[in-house]
Specification:
30% of the residues lie in helices and 20% in strands. By secondary structure, it is an alpha+beta fold. The strands form 8 sheets. The chain has a 9-stranded antiparallel sheet, covered by helices on one side. The chain has a 5-stranded mixed sheet with strand order 19-23-26-29-28. Helix 4 runs antiparallel to helix 5 and helix 11 runs antiparallel to helix 12. It starts with 7 loop residues before the first strand and ends in a 5-residue tail after the last strand.
């Protein structure tokens, strides 16, 4: 029987496909449990389109086993504990309990830990021994590795990548220290319990690896190595969480998606963090021939960024800084294609130069530029962090993309419109099309934001920016009252994934309810059932905008086909449920202003952002929750989702698919609330919504690390209830 705790994912066996085993990740290191390799953020091997995450042999690939022939019934349990960011494997019989714990340290991101604990359950038993089956070999197909001298009882392995991403580029160094695991551990007679800890430390230099090991050993000597990690996770959840009052499986799905997203981000206030981008499969995946080789796509900017901005704006800025650092590569990409400005790579790694193995995607999926600008735009409206745009490269990115668009379009004298020819939209079943409506709307949005930003920064606004924005063609069929995906698209043609339905949300674009409905109906009927997981979440958002909740849930249900066994998720009718969301989500829309992070603003670990209360006074950032009341007949999840998503419903594609989780989270955070980022679209999609204090308790989504406004008018209120004008 599965636990009723939505924060624990429990099984008595692992999936037969090891790709679907739980991942252990922080912002610097990532691996899968019982996998023979690990990855280091930003370390790639291979030239150009062959570049991929370099694999480092993992000392954590250790199986816990009991000796054979003991004659005792043994119970095995596997638990992913999202409360503490730990994977647990437990063996238990009448005599003992043995627990193996694997985690990527939250506050020491260069450290991975494997611990084994033995506890005696029968005082009459003698010595208890468990076996540790390790399969470690100091070799890698991507790294020239050498064994060096031991340090502080740890083995030492060092080397560099074999082939740089670009000719003449650096061969990146990797240095690893680890404490070796013995073949067996014994709890001696008379001992009640004991724990052994084994460390793996990775750095970019010998000095860095040694310094990180010494810090880990210092905590280990104090007995606080695990405590420091676990408490950091507890504090993170206390400051930033998501829960529902409702069915367990839905709560698990939300918890799991947010857990894996937070796992990929640095701990708030972490010093010296440099973001190398987020790939669809996360840092635990991305070796050669898997999970898009660890490359960074539009997934980061369109599917993941809005959630990160809401929960962890400091990390959101880090993602934008990755785009700033790779701007030089984007400028080269545009020049190589014969255009001005910057063309961000469809697939990027370290340099920002295009590393997509197939040229057609790199040259035609230019809509990524619009997603990059949209991320900067969301951040700007939510934070007013002028320093990023004035002195840290944000303006250079936005203006360079505007220049690219203006050089890429062509004037059509016949239509008196600007055309964008020879592109591939998000629907990758169609290439070389003209005037992708999704792409062209993003061109409009990019240019108009660039003009607004220029005025705010005191920069001149080139006339061509607004001329192109006003005159670019946005295909529309007046007779059938819908947006064709591109020039010449005929209703009934199959599409791969969410494309036109992204207009309205997440892409800001004004649509009448009639046109929004027609777009949804036409493309829902022809979207491939083999499409990626995030697709159906966006259809759900559209139907929620039209207040057709039954249809929204039917579409959201499809995304759960991408959550893997053994705990399959499905939807079935239920009477009601309540969604708990953060009060800081409501603040900007109700109070009318976002918190300001001015130039040079500094904050340290644990510092909360000051926020504006409804009257404009400084609020305390107290923890609040929003509660969505449910109506009758709402479909809800009835069984328990496992933590790992796959890109496609048949289990193919990327695994631990952060993009699908990001789409699902957006459907909940923005679709089912109607909340939108200030300054882009109508602020609250449900104009008749009533917001009143409620007495609900147990909120798991808080605002301490958010830049957004929190409600603070009722200090004794434990939550906020949204009374929607229609039944949820």
């Amino acid at each position: 029987m599965a636990s009723e705790d939505p924060t624990l994912f429990t099984a008595h066996s692992l999936p037969s496909d090891p790709r679907l085993w739980a991942t252990v990740t922080n912002a610097y290191l990532g691996t899968r449990v019982y996998h023979d390799t690990l990855h280091v953020s930003g370390i790639y091997n291979g030239a150009r389109g062959a570049t991929h995450r370099a694999t480092l042999p993992s000392p954590l690939n250790v199986q816990l086993e009991a000796p054979a022939g003991t004659g005792h019934q043994l119970t095995k349990t596997f638990i992913l504990d999202t409360n503490t960011g730990s994977f647990l494997h437990t063996l238990e019989d009448s005599r003992f309990r043995a627990s193996q714990c694997i985690y990527a340290h939250r506050t020491l991101p260069h450290v991975l830990v494997l611990s084994v604990s033995l506890s005696r359950l029968d005082a009459r038993s003698g010595p208890i021994t468990v076996l540790l089956q390790a399969a470690f070999s100091p070799e890698s197909p991507d790294l020239d590795l050498h064994l060096g001298p031991d340090f502080q009882g740890a083995r030492y392995l060092y080397g560099h990548t074999l082939t740089p991403e670009q000719p003449g580029g650096p061969q990146q160094e990797v240095h690893m220290l680890w404490t070796p695991v013995p073949p067996a551990l014994t709890l001696g007679e008379g001992e009640e319990d004991r724990t052994w800890e084994f460390l793996t430390v990775v750095g970019g230099s010998q000095a860095e690896a040694q310094a990180c090991l010494l810090e880990a050993l210092r905590l280990q000597a104090k007995g606080t190595l695990y405590t420091a990690h676990a408490q950091a996770w507890v504090q993170l959840w206390a400051d930033c969480g998501l829960d529902v009052v409702g069915p367990l499986a839905l709560r698990q799905a939300l918890r799991g998606a947010l857990y894996y997203l937070l796992s990929a981000l640095p701990h708030p206030g972490a010093p010296g963090y440099i973001c190398h981008g987020l790939s669809p499969g996360g840092l635990s995946n991305g070796s050669r021939d898997e999970c898009y080789w660890g490359h960074v796509f539009w997934d980061q900017d369109l599917w993941l960024f809005p959630n990160i901005l809401l929960f962890h704006p400091e990390a959101a800025r880090g993602l934008l800084e990755y785009r700033v650092r790779t701007l030089a590569g984007a400028l080269d990409n545009a020049r190589n294609l014969g255009y001005q400005g910057a063309k961000f790579a469809w697939e990027s790694a370290g340099s920002g130069l295009e590393v997509c193995p197939e040229d057609i995607y790199g040259t035609q999926e230019i809509h990524i530029n619009g997603a990059v600008v949209l991320a900067f735009e969301l951040y700007y409206h939510s934070t007013q962090d002028l320093q990023l745009f004035q002195k840290a490269g944000g303006w250079e990115v936005v203006s360079a993309i505007a220049e690219f668009w203006c050089s890429r379009v062509e004037w059509s004298p016949g239509e008196e419109k600007y055309h964008l020819r020879g592109v591939m939209p998000p629907d990758e079943y169609h290439s070389g099309v003209n005037n992708s409506v999704y792409t062209n709307v993003l061109v409009q949005n990019s240019l108009r934001f660039a003009a607004v930003l220029a005025e705010d920064l005191g920069q001149p606004v080139p006339e061509q920016w607004l001329a192109v924005a006003d005159k670019i063609k946005v295909p529309f069929d007046l007779k059938q009252n819908f947006h064709p995906e591109f020039d010449g698209y005929k209703p009934g043609e199959e599409v791969k994934q969410a494309d036109v339905v992204l207009l309205g949300y997440p892409v800001p674009f004004s649509l009448s309810p009639q046109v929004r409905r027609k777009n949804l109906e036409i493309y829902e009927a022809v979207t491939s059932p083999q499409g990626p997981a995030m697709t159906w979440s966006m259809f759900a958002v559209g139907w929620m905008e039209l207040k057709d909740t039954r249809r929204a849930w039917d579409l959201l249900e499809r995304s759960f086909a991408n959550i893997t066994e053994p705990f399959k998720a499905s939807l079935a009718p239920a009477s009601a449920h309540t969604l708990i969301l953060p009060a800081f989500c409501l603040g900007p829309w109700l109070a009318g202003a976002g918190a300001q992070l001015g130039e040079g603003s500094q904050r340290g670990p644990g510092d909360s952002h000051q926020t504006l209360g409804p009257s404009g006074s400084r609020g305390s950032g107290l923890r609040r929750a929003c509660v969505l009341g449910g109506g009758g007949g709402v479909p809800v999840l009835t069984t328990f989702p496992l933590q790992v998503w796959t890109e496609n419903a048949d289990g193919s594609g990327a695994v631990n698919f952060l993009t699908g989780m990001g789409g699902f989270l957006q459907a909940v955070l923005f679709g089912f609330t109607g909340l939108r980022t200030q300054g882009l679209v109508p602020l609250l999609s449900w104009p008749d919504t009533e917001v009143t204090p409620s007495g609900s308790k147990g909120s798991k989504l808080f605002s301490k690390n958010s830049l957004l406004t929190t409600l603070d008018s009722c200090p004794q209120t434990t939550g906020w209830s949204l009374g929607l004008p229609w039944a949820l």
